[in-house]
Amino acid sequence: MDLLxxxxxxxxxxDVKPIPEDGYYMPASCVMGTFNPSVEPLIGxxxxxxxxxxxxxxxxxxSKNTCCSGIVTHGSVFTIESSLLVVARLWSVAAExxxxxxxxxxxxxxxxxxxxxxxxxxxxxxxxxxxRVLFDACGRRLVVPKEIVHCSDVIYRYRAExxxxxxxRLVDSVTGRPLKVVDHVGCHxxxxxxxxSVGGMExxxxxxxxxxxxxxxxxxxxERRHCCGMGFRQCMVRPNRSFTLACARKKFExxxxxxxxxxxxxxxxxxxxxxxxxxxxxxxxxxxxxxxxLNYAQLAGLLLGWGPYDTIGIQGHSVPVEPxxxxxxxxxxxxxLSLNHASRPVALAGAALGSAx
Length: 357
Description:
alpha/beta; 2 domains; 357 residues; Glutathione S-transferase Yfyf (Class Pi), Chain A, domain 2; Rossmann fold; four-stranded parallel beta sheet; single chain
């Protein structure tokens, strides 16, 4: 089966952005790799399923990967000049690997890479200065990527091709009712550079288009675009920690009357907060929020029929995902005792459609 038998049509409710069809370099995400280590291998596996050419900067020293510096920049620990050099070095590594497009797993990385690119292309003399300092520091040259997109943009582009390969749909297997899905888009994806997101800020369609294509219903509610509350200063500075809980509570209470079956995210931090803070809000308020939270790559993998534990890693979530799988009709077996679910290597180049389990 050829997943790319027809050229994808990219449409949104309002805005269209360029999404490269191939050649993706994916820098590793420090937050995603720490708290949900199955997601990056899943994205690579989806790229392989689509027959796309890609490479990843993993965590081993030989990969030459580093943090993008976004978390310390927004936490007021790092300077913007330092971030320019860190990001420029990552671009050089991508170019060295033969890739001109960067696809970020993390929305903060997505925004930071785009911010650095915009500075370099618009500030007179800045590119020459960064190139000189970069060469003096590590012998590398500045190579500005052709496109910087988020990995969810790529899955958005090929959502219909993936749907044709899926064994399951976002519907209740007993009633046939489409499941109700809340989309939560990371603030650094659609709020810092609205023109670089799919659909802009208020009408961002990058996740809801996947939901509709894969059989579900999108849930609109008053605090749909409210921040999850992660904000790096809140997470890193203890006196501000209660702000995260308050933001998460505001979202959960706002969506509760609509009785969503799933929260879908494209941000490592939002996935962490929306999954883990339900327990905190329940403890603080006596509520009983139990809405599963998944990354879009995890959802795609589950609907494709990949193993919920050994490949998707749902046992690492605080809110149990198994009840949702039961409603869809996805078998999951007994929950493993270990959280070690990254059983497949990161590099999966050449995986064929027929070999997906």
